[in-house]
Amino acid sequence: VQLVESGGGLVQPGGSLRLSCAASGFTFSSYVMSWYRQAPGKERELVAFIASTGGSTDYADSVKGRFTISRDNAYSMGYLQMNSLKPEDTGVYYCNAQTWANTYWGQGTQVTVSS
Question: What pLDDT does residue 54 have?
Fold first, then answer.
């Protein structure tokens, strides 16, 4: 079982990044997928959520209107499009896949928003 994030990096305020999450070793299409982030010295927080079929999404208030979560179950991939990035979006971003029985985490990808 693996979740592998990619796409992080250094970006200037106002810029964009697209994070990807590649899932393997389990039936990704049966799992709710979420993106979390953890800033230095802070607790991990939920950023966005998408239902197993992709039919329902939700976002933290701090990212609504700027971030878009999506998934492609045919390729066992999840995405987080991040626009209008702010310095407070800096942190390690983690992909999460969950059912009532199992929870899987990726290793995280660093996002730094700075001029």
Answer: 87
Low-confidence ranges of the chain (pLDDT < 70): none
115 within 8 A of 11, measured Cβ to Cβ = no
Block residue for tokens 């939920």:
46
Contacts by 45-50 with C-beta closer than 8 Å and gap 24+? 47/80, 47/93, 48/80, 50/78
Task: Report CA dihedral (37, 40, 44, 50) to the nearest 10 degrees.
Answer: -10
Q: Which tokens is 36 given?
A: 């979390």
Judge whether 11 and 112 are in contact, CB under 8 Å.
yes
Phi-psi region of 23 (alpha: psi -120 to 50; beta: other; left: phi over 0): beta
